[in-house]
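Record Serine hydrolase domain-containing protein, 401 aa.
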Amino acid sequence: MTTSVRVPRPASVPRTELHVDPRFLPLADRFFAMYRQPQHGGGALTAYFRGEKVLDIWAGWADRDRRWDRDTVALSFSTGKGVASTVVHRLAERRLIDYDAPVARYWPEFGAAGKDDITVRELLTHRAGLHKVRGLMRSPLDLLDYDAVVQALAATPADPRRLRGPGYHAVTYGWLVAELIARVTGKSFVQAVQDEIAGPLGVDDFWYQVPGQHRPRIAKLFPHINPAGLNWELTSNVLSLVGPTRGLAEAAMPQGFDVLVRNPAVHDAVMPGWNGVFSARALARMYGAIANGGRLDGHRFLRKATIAQMSQVQTHDRDYVLGIRPQWSLGYHRPILASREQPRNAIGHYGVGGSGAYADLDSGLSLGFVTNRLGSSLTALGDFRLARLGVEAQAIVRNGK
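=>
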């Protein structure tokens, strides 16, 4: 049984309807407590359980003078990697892509500079050795030129550390996967996302190039993304010179990126590693299908065998960019919960600032969370909001069995 909570509104205000299954009220309470003041910003949380939408809520402020509403969407950074990866798996299921084939089979130019033997599987698990975005292009605005970036990546030699383990392709992953998809389908990446994700799921909010009529829906991000409020250029330069942090600076801190993030032109470009704009509803629906054995509303989105392949951990090695062992599967990581007990069979992708989504394949639970308040009071790079929401959701599911 579910309860729909209708909020009274003037006729001029868009329809607003919160959806709360009574079992998930504790999760809703925890979410609403996060957005009590304008300085907390706003956000949205949607959950599916065994193919049924059990939570669809939002709260807070999309901007200083605008409340978050049902139609608000947010730039969600690396959350978009999971969506892009899912397109690959839809194609692999139809045998249009072979995980163990060289990327150069589909994208011949990729084979330049000794990269002819790098496979799709290695690309999806951050073992292509192309993590470096810092210095890839001459200026920050050049990162908006999809064709130029793709050509530069194809011509770049792979980092030899890839042979020892993964190196998180924090920004470049999106371009690499997008071009692979474009070469295989003969379509633009944006069109492929519409055909393979948005269309089959019946929801449009999977944007990498945001149509003009939808841009007023985008929540304004704050504060600045600079680590600890420090100067971006100075910080990135220093980190790039220090051994333990060099890989992170190379992969995630290109010159001028802090300014580029706030440039409206990012919504015209295709940069799937970080510029995806989503609703929590869309993300939870995609992962809800994955968590429910590939089916949603009586329609098959993915086969169980495909989900089994895409969720299998591919590497337990230390990531030379992140300095940890993320246990990458094919385009996803394990969701991180603020608990000693972590889901054993789950996939998803979180983004800088706090947004993210995942599917728990054992329980049938999926969560999608987007927010415009980047991180915590300590750093804009991330926090534990989704990790804590995940703990609450898992407890509800576990206790309800």
